[in-house]
Design a protein that fits this description.
The chain is α/β, with parallel strands linked by helices and 291 residues long. Helices cover 45% and strands 13% of the residues. It is built from twelve helices and eleven strands. The chain has a six-stranded mixed beta sheet with strand order 1-2-6-5-3-4, sandwiched between helices. It has a five-stranded parallel beta sheet with strand order 7-11-10-8-9. Helix 1 (7-22) packs antiparallel against helix 2 (28-51), helix 5 packs across helix 6 (131-142) and helix 10 (224-237) crosses helix 11 (253-264). It is elongated and about 60 Å long. 33% of the residues are buried.
């Protein structure tokens, strides 16, 4: 369900049209003209209000459905610490908090240019559906996004949390997962053009891993602290411009979680590859070292 603050204006305009149409002694042509004028006036009022920064709202449940359908951008603008504790599955992340940090507005403008100018509606999630959403609407409008496409999720993350709509499960995201075989991964060892990331737990990694691979544990895939460690490591130690081959236990949920987190860290999923069958692959296991 969507709501606009212009609703009262439209109701007034419709009422005026009804009164005009029911007035005695008015012929049909005059009535039609009056109705047309009232409708045009209502449309102009709505457009003017929108240009002035009118807010459009969408219900939390509708934002969740939209993210699952992948037909609308659901944009979460909270700080990482809050976002990592629970997010709408399938949402995108581009922070605007803290609001006084103007560099975030610049980053959001760049993000909009790259990802949001496709004509899709944008549902904005902030902490409570107020200041963060208003600031985001301002920034995106200035970046050239049609304001009629911008909606605030009513009540923000607080309302979504109350409806049990936030999750830390990232393994079912609508991402086009990329794969390489174990053989291809082993053949790429030693290349300066490929990075290797092992997301198994530290003890398992120590018992055998691919040479030169980095390690961050994502065994507990829904643990926000583990996801935060993954995020910080990716930002600090991995090159977003080079492919990353990701090894987990079996080539499934841990690796997918890593890709989802890295996507939030600014990595293109097209550059992120899951090693098929993970550590179970014979070629991979044969190349393990313990140093």
């Amino acid at each position: 369900m969507r709501k606009k603050l212009t609703a009262a204006l439209l109701v007034s305009a419709m009422a005026a049209m009804m009164v005009t149409g029911c007035a005695s002694g008015t012929d049909s042509k005059e009535t039609t003209a009056a109705q047309t004028t009232a409708a045009e006036s209502a449309a102009e009022t709505t457009a003017a209000s929108k240009e002035a920064g009118e807010t459009q709202y969408v219900a939390p449940a509708d934002a969740v459905k939209a993210a699952q359908a992948d037909e609308i951008h659901v944009l979460d603008v909270r700080e990482w610490a809050n976002y990592a504790e629970g997010r709408v599955a399938g949402s995108e992340w581009c922070p605007i908090f803290p609001l006084e940090d103007e560099s975030l507005a610049e980053q959001m403008t760049a993000y909009a240019e790259k990802n949001l100018k496709d004509g899709k509606e944008i549902y904005i999630i902030c902490n409570s559906g107020k200041r963060g959403a208003a600031k985001t609407t301002e920034v995106l409008t200035a970046a050239g996004i049609d304001p009629s496409l911008l909606f605030t999720v009513e009540g923000g993350a607080k309302a979504l949390g109350e409806e049990k709509s936030l999750t830390t499960n990232r393994a079912e995201e609508a991402i086009d997962w990329q794969y390489v075989t174990g053989k291809e991964a082993v053949e790429a060892l030693g290349s300066e053009d490929v990075q290797f990331l092992d997301v198994r737990d530290m003890d398992t990694y120590a018992k055998g891993h691919l040479p030169q691979s980095m390690n961050v544990g994502l065994k507990e895939i829904e643990d926000s602290a583990a996801q935060t460690e993954m995020y910080e490591m990716a930002k600090a130690e991995l090159d977003a411009e080079k492919p990353v081959y990701i090894l987990c236990y079996s080539g499934n949920k841990c690796a997918k979680t890593a890709i989802s987190v890295m996507k939030d860290a600014g990595f293109d999923p097209a550059n992120l590859f899951i090693i098929e069958n993970g550590a179970k692959d014979a070629d991979v296991a044969a190349a393990f070292v313990t140093e």
